[in-house]
């Protein structure tokens, strides 16, 4: 068997190659670990998931849900202070919706049941027809669906503010929503998982039981790391 004796330049080249290979593998492993043990952040209307290291989170300015102020089914004023430091789930509906809204409400009851005793988990459903969804109407809807008003707030308020929050903060209709006229009707099956800092951490089709199961699992993930 013949062995080649490397000269100094070749040896240095091999050493450099293996150093690069090592750090490349470490970087890949770190990225995989980050993705495995945490949820992504959604910062844009195309819902591209992004994972960040802690050092990146300390320096980056991430998208957050804007401040808001609406009224719930009990006549209480619900603002960003209500959910400050809490994990919350948000969606958009209207009480006389004959199609996807009853399905969404029924599926989201799974979340209410899973975290019924947890004061750090809040649910928020914004009406996209606030002109007809008065406090009294929302109260009737809440009673019909056995919604816990301490944990799940059905919100009404100024239509323009609700629509602006939906499209600009939640990206409720993805990119197409940003192209619509502000009074153009808003209808979406999406539900959103928001962390304690107001960041979007999950987007789910609330008409699908499997997506709701994933939502419950992801809330547990956030509870363990956030």
TrEMBL record:
Transmembrane parts of this sequence: none
Record carries keyword Amino-acid biosynthesis: no
Annotated ranges, domain Thioredoxin: 59-226
Coiled coil: none
Assigned keywords, A-Z: Copper
Record Pfam families: SCO1-SenC
Similarity comment: family membership: Belongs to the SCO1/2 family.
Protein known as: Electron transport protein SCO1/SenC
Organism: Emticicia oligotrophica (strain DSM 17448 / CIP 109782 / MTCC 6937 / GPTSA100-15)
Record lineage: Bacteria, Pseudomonadati, Bacteroidota, Cytophagia, Cytophagales
């Amino acid at each position: 068997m013949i062995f080649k004796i490397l000269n100094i330049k070749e040896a240095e080249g091999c050493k450099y190659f293996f150093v690069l290979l090592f750090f490349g593998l470490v970087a890949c492993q770190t990225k995989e670990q980050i993705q495995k043990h945490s949820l992504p952040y959604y910062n844009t209307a195309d819902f591209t998931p992004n994972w960040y290291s802690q050092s990146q989170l300390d320096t980056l300015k991430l998208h957050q849900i804007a401040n808001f102020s609406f009224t719930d089914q009990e006549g209480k004023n619900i603002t960003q202070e209500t959910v400050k430091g809490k994990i919350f789930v948000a969606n958009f509906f209207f009480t006389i919706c004959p199609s996807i809204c009853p399905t969404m409400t029924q599926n989201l009851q799974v979340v209410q049941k899973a975290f019924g005793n947890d004061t750090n988990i809040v649910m928020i459903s914004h009406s996209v027809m606030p002109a007809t969804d008065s406090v009294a109407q929302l109260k009737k809807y809440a009673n019909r669906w056995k919604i816990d008003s301490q944990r799940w707030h059905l919100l009404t308020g100024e239509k323009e503010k609700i629509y602006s929050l939906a499209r600009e903060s939640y990206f409720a209709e993805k990119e197409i929503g940003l192209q619509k006229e502000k009074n153009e009707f808003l209808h979406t099956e999406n539900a959103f998982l928001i962390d304690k800092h107001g960041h979007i951490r999950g987007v789910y089709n609330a008409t699908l039981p499997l997506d709701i199961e994933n939502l419950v699992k992801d809330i547990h993930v956030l509870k363990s790391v956030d």
